[in-house]
Hints:
six-stranded parallel beta sheet, binds fe (iii) ion
Amino acid sequence: MFQYEMPTKVYFGKDCIAQSGDVLAQFGRKALLVTGRHSAKINGAQQAVTDKLDALGIEWVLFDEVESNPSIETVRRAAEVGRNEQVGCVIAIGGGSPMDAGKVIALLCTNDLDDTALFTGPYCPPLPIIAVPTTSGTGSEVTKVAVLTNPHAGTKQSVGSPLIFPKIAFVDPTFTVGVSRRVTIDTAIDALSHAVEGYLSTGSTPMSDVWAEEAMRFLGIHLDALDQELSYAVREDLMYASTLAGIVIAQTGTTLIHGMGYQLTYYKGLSHGRANGILFPAYMKLMEEAVPDKTAKIWELLDVSGLEEFTEIMKKLMPGTVDLTEEEIELYTKLTMPTSAVKRTSCEVTPDLVKQIYRSLKA
Ligand code: FE
């Protein structure tokens, strides 16, 4: 038995917001726009949304203070705005941070949750969520998870519920055209890790594998050229792959790479994609032994000869090392072990194994 759930209505392609007719009219007379400080204004996404809202006669208020790796405090402040303004929906525009924040803000507009219940539920339905990604990585526009920084737990933590699947995702590759090379690489590797981890997860299903293979195929074609100038057509492929990979993890969850990577982001300030990228080769080495047939298929889909070539590509895209003290390794391992990401990993994960992988990042 397996389940497949993907309730988000996806509009994909250039000018998809302008071409969406009156679909936004069903969510009330006022919307809360949730963005980071700058990028949604520069890449055209905010304008595309407000043009559509204005044309439909829907009022909007803007909360543009979402930081990367958003905090509980920020989402509470934004929800306060949403409640006071009595908005009917939340439109989250940006990379993973504004989209994840938007999901939690929509929950907090309809639920009174303390800092513990925020992560555990139970939840009443949130305000409808509309997601507009402006990077090709997180896939958050089609997932039921939002990751926040939780200082109480000393790491990044997930809010997860089918209730926070966005109602609508407007996926327009145009918004990613100006994304810097560094962010393009980091986010593409995040998308790749979603496809690969989902494919190798103990929660993978025949239906999630369809999207995972397709996502890997679209990412594989461009993997070696991510550090070069990218055409619109390539940007389109990356965004398509990122959304497909999001659909995958909405079914399967993520595994050891994400479980370990969160610590590198929280404590060492590595971007999410970069943290995943530097852990990737060690993970694939484990998977070659644990799930050899699927790993061989991954190499084929990515058009690489095997672990050695893949490691070389990752090292080229993610140069540098992470030097951790034994105390840090001890703490990060303690935080990683109880996560569901570990449970979904297709090999036995012991504290010693996790420590060994963290240590290997030095070399
Ligand atoms: Fe991720």
